[in-house]
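Dear Dr. L.,

I hope this message finds you well. Following up on our conversation about the binding site, I have prepared a predicted three-dimensional model of the protein together with tryptophanyl-5'AMP. For your records, I am including the exact sequence and ligand specification that went into the calculation, followed by the structure tokens. Please feel free to forward this to your student if that is useful.
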Amino acid sequence: MKRLLSGLQPSGELTIGNYCGGIRQFLQYQKEYDSFLFVPDMHTITVPQANPELIRERIRRFANLYLACGLDPQNCTFYIQSEIPAVNQLTWILECHTYMGELSRMTQYKSKSEKQTNVGCGLFTYPVLMAADIILYDSNVVPVGIDQKQHVELARDIAVRMNNRYGDLFVVPEPIIAKVGAKIKDLQDPTKKMSKSNEDPMGTIFLLDSESDIKKKINRAVTDNDGYVAFDEEKKPGISNLITIYAALSGTPMQEAIDHFTGMTRYGDFKKEVLEVIYETLRPIQAEYQKLSQSDYVDTILDQGRDRANEIASKKYDLVRKAVGFGR
Ligand code: TYM
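The resulting structure of the complex is given below.
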């Protein structure tokens, strides 16, 4: 069975953008693949984090949310990145086979490093850790949103380079990008992507937001003064983003969603329909999350996942270690 792998970084709370670009694809594909979904906690410290306890809380929250969203431990292996020592070990080897020029071209590095004064080396090498996450398990496909595509392509390049140099060590992974919802935009500034770590929470809908907060955010979502609904990402980015959210969450094909709304003149009525779909998506997730977070079930699942992931990862690392000439 082919392997599917992805992760969502606990550097903020999960958003409907993460749901649309990441989790939803897992829901769609989990039965067809041997699926691995992990919490990349080591990636969170690539930018300064004020509170280590909060990272630990989020790791648990993310794992519970994976389950609450309907990802099934029968099909998925869930684990925490830092519990797999071979990821670190492989990262070092891959770093020695990745060029400074390649990492300097990463758009996420460029935009994140601009926002900081003292940029940590880890922010620069972040994509190599991500490549190790992916190729350590011989992952065939990696479902991500558009913002992570470049990193998955780098993982491909590194895998190919390692294979050319040392023989067939790694499966070369492919990104899978959702047709709809691979880049959900910020509600207050629909030219930017919706982000977990945005300073203005009005632009972002979190999976655990209350219905009254969601209503406030959708009602205040930036639109325009044209007075008619139409899909045009350049001229009407706010409206187009809301149509995309509706299509992605309801599973309606994009053209059907566009036809459904085009020509409506009352933005309030349009927003009401979008709001209803968000409520319908999040209600069962939040109810399940409440149940799960009161039990220790997630620990059992994460223990099993860690053991399975470690077994595969340590075997692969051993092959790589020998191939590059380490040890006796
Ligand atoms: P992260 O945590 O930023 O995002 C998690 C997933 O959500 C997608 N995403 C979005 N999709 C649509 N619209 C948006 N506004 C939006 N924002 C985020 C992301 O593309 C991603 O699929 N480095 C990764 C985590 C990671 C990883 C990996 C992923 C570490 N190792 C190995 C895949 C494979 C990250 O920070 O994603």
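In brief: The first strand starts at residue 3 and ends at 7.

With kind regards,
A. P.
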